[in-house]
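A brief tutorial aside. Many learners find it easier to grasp structure tokens once they have seen a single protein encoded end to end. The record that follows does exactly this for Histidine kinase/HSP90-like ATPase domain-containing protein. Read the sequence first, then the structure, and try to relate runs of similar tokens to stretches of the chain.
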Amino acid sequence: MVRRRLAAELLESGVYEDIADDAAVIVSELISNALRHARPLPSGDIRVAWTRQGDLIQLAVSDGGAMTEPRRARATLSSLGGRGLGIVESLADGWGVLHDDDGTTVWATLHSPHTSNGRSAADPPQSLIDQPTH
């Protein structure tokens, strides 16, 4: 449901279908990782957010954190898992992890190719950095 809603909103905002599809896959992988590996936020939920500012699409999934740091694993051919952040890394222009008192946010950015704002995709989205912590 989140994946379809994200893709529909991005398409409606003028993002190319291929980019909207990539964003939907990224969010799906981040949600799967949060559900599989982390605790929920203090509210009992995980938080999924996305924004589009000019050509920059910002995606984020927040959870209550885990015992290990989110990192890209080196999956083997016989591995049953461990590919999620590798998929995110291959589709996104940048991704990273932010921590606050409530937990962990894994973010990713994508650029739509039709405009440019000069921002580095490897930087955390400012809207994520500026989120108040409760």
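Self-check: The chain has one domain: 2-129. If you spotted this yourself, you are ready for the next section.
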